[in-house]
Design goal:
Largest sheet: 8 strands, parallel
CATH topology: TIM Barrel
Number of helices: 11
Oligomer: single chain
Mean pLDDT: 92
Number of domains: 1
CATH class: Alpha Beta
Strand order of the largest sheet: 8-7-6-5-4-3-10-9
Radius of gyration: 17 Å
Number of strands: 10
Distance between the termini: 26 Å
Strand content: 5-15%
Structural class: alpha/beta
Low-confidence stretches: 282-288
Helix content: 40-55%
CATH architecture: Alpha-Beta Barrel
């Protein structure tokens, strides 16, 4: 595995003595996100949330303008651009890598021009023209697995062997990406918890994060924050899933994830600092 993830203007340590679990903070610019969407998505509100993440020590900020919760309806290109571009431009010099959560090649293009450092695609860069857009430049590319679409993905998801099928999907996407001469040190993988998976599928994937990083020699991102699988286990509604989300993030890291995508940034960072210290990791994590 490469020592660093090439992430636009940044190189993020993945292995070696300077490496530690990285925290990606979620910044939704949507009124209908399943867990934190609201009508309070004005620029000043978003900047305040981003500033709080930065002060807490976030490693990456992931900006999303279209909800991908189960049953979510797609939004137009114009709407998505109107939502995400102002906050990207406002944060472009904040000193933290910026990620855009999108599957639309046109949004990828505009976001790259505005200076994002990562593109996080729930469709795994399968849209026509997506790979042509991202081939130029050095943004990190997060390849996520999803069975079907947000509108249908939780309608009785079915696999013969979820580990094999998700792994085969990654193999096919990595092959296509490398045909576009995209450097492997720009790639990371996300199994897509809750994106066309039942609770047993999700738990199997959670237990086997290292399987994917070892097979492909790539870092793995885990996004479990506040998801319905946590509600199914704890019986808690989405607004009461912070503790479960932190527990899930720690579990993902223990099982091999390199990056966790979370809503509760400060709390997750504190938990990871304790885990890092207790496992004799770099003392620098405690000084940050």
């Amino acid at each position: 595995m490469n020592k660093y993830l090439q992430c636009g203007r940044f190189r993020l340590p993945i292995t070696g003595e300077n490496a530690r679990p990285l925290v990606m903070g979620i910044l939704n610019v949507t009124p209908d996100s399943f867990s934190d969407g609201s009508d309070h998505n004005q620029l000043n509100f978003l900047l305040d949330r981003a500033e709080a993440m930065i002060n807490a020590g976030v490693d990456i900020i992931d900006i999303g303008g279209e909800s991908t919760r189960p049953g979510a309806q797609p939004v137009s290109l114009e709407t998505e651009l109107q939502r995400v571009m102002p906050i990207i431009y406002a944060l472009q010099d904040c000193g933290i890598p910026l990620s855009i959560d999108t599957y639309k090649p046109e949004v990828m293009r505009e976001a790259q021009i505005a200076g994002v450092d990562m593109i996080n695609d729930v469709h795994g860069f399968r849209a026509k023209g997506a790979l042509d857009v991202v081939a130029q430049g050095d943004c990190a590319l997060c390849i996520m697995h999803m069975q079907n679409t947000p509108q249908t993905m939780q309608d009785q998801p079915l696999y013969d062997d979820v580990l094999t099928e998700v792994s085969d999907f990654f193999a096919e996407r990595i092959n296509q990406i490398q045909l576009h001469n995209i450097a492997k040190n720009r790639l990371l993988l996300d199994v897509g918890f809750g994106f066309g998976k039942s609770l047993p599928h999700n738990l199997t994937l959670l237990q086997n994060q290292k399987l994917f990083s070892e097979r492909f020699s790539l870092p793995v991102l885990a996004g479990l924050s506040r998801k319905s699988m946590l509600g199914a286990i704890t019986g808690k509604p989405v607004e009461l899933r912070m503790a479960a989300s932190i527990g899930a993030a720690l579990t993902a890291v223990v099982n091999g994830a390199h990056i966790v995508r979370v809503h509760d940034v400060a709390e997750t960072i504190d938990a990871l600092k304790i885990w890092t210290a207790s496992n004799n990791k770099s003392d620098s994590a405690l000084a940050e």
